[in-house]
Write the structure tokens for this entry.
Amino acid sequence: MIKGTNLTKKFEENIALDGINFEIEDGSIYGLVGSNGSGKSTLLRLISGVYRADGGAIEIDGESCFNNVNIKDKIAFLGDTPYFLPQSNLIDMKRFYKSVYSNFSDETFEHLLSVFPLNRNARISTMSKGMQRQAALILAMSTKPSYLLLDEAFDGLDVVMRRVLANIIIDGVERDGLTAIIASHNLRELEDIVDHIALIHNGNILFNDQSEQLKDKIHKIQVAFNNVPDTSVFDALDVMKIERTGSLLQLVVRGDKKEIMDFIKNLMPLFAECIQPTIEEIFVYELEVIGYDVKNILQ
């Protein structure tokens, strides 16, 4: 398990992370969402042991991450700009990774090369951005990590390769108990694969919850009436937002879905339906309620 306690990181006067607390369970796919500069990359570098915390603690399996060779042997970190040795090809990088990681798997390396059609003998520097990302992923997954950290993992990949990457991550979780942390500024890229998601902004975690639980907490209701009642009739519900277009009302409501729909049906509407909001919509609703400028957070 990865655990952060009052975790703080500063760069001169800039506070990148401001005393955050979180836990990431083993065998999960954890989405970390936030705008550029929100603190996502800093957090990944603290987990991977690249940075030393200025306050609090970051631990994996009860051990400090920084300067811990045994912990780092379990981690594969794919940053937003992958690094390769100068003039190297995939075979050169394979030798390098094998000299560093004790669990490097030739079998996994060959399998992933059959999935991602890259020329193992070509210089990586001559490859496109998307192909370099694929090369970095091949190397990272071949280390057989317990913890896979991906910063903007889908950047530069086409739609097909994004789906392939998602399947590889899911397979690693199901087969090997992999724990994956995926940071992205694009919530829609993560929604279908993560089972836990956190929203980070200005160095603080605003929300941190299981994705399915988030969806169960908030509901979008469309309801129509012959005679539209005064909106005060809905005060008995935990209404986050209500909009009217003619005889149609759209409500965003927290709570138990059945109890909400039973209450609305007692008002004798012409029709009423519950529409499952996306996680992005849920975050927008929550942020609006607590007064955040959504455009500066989810962009």
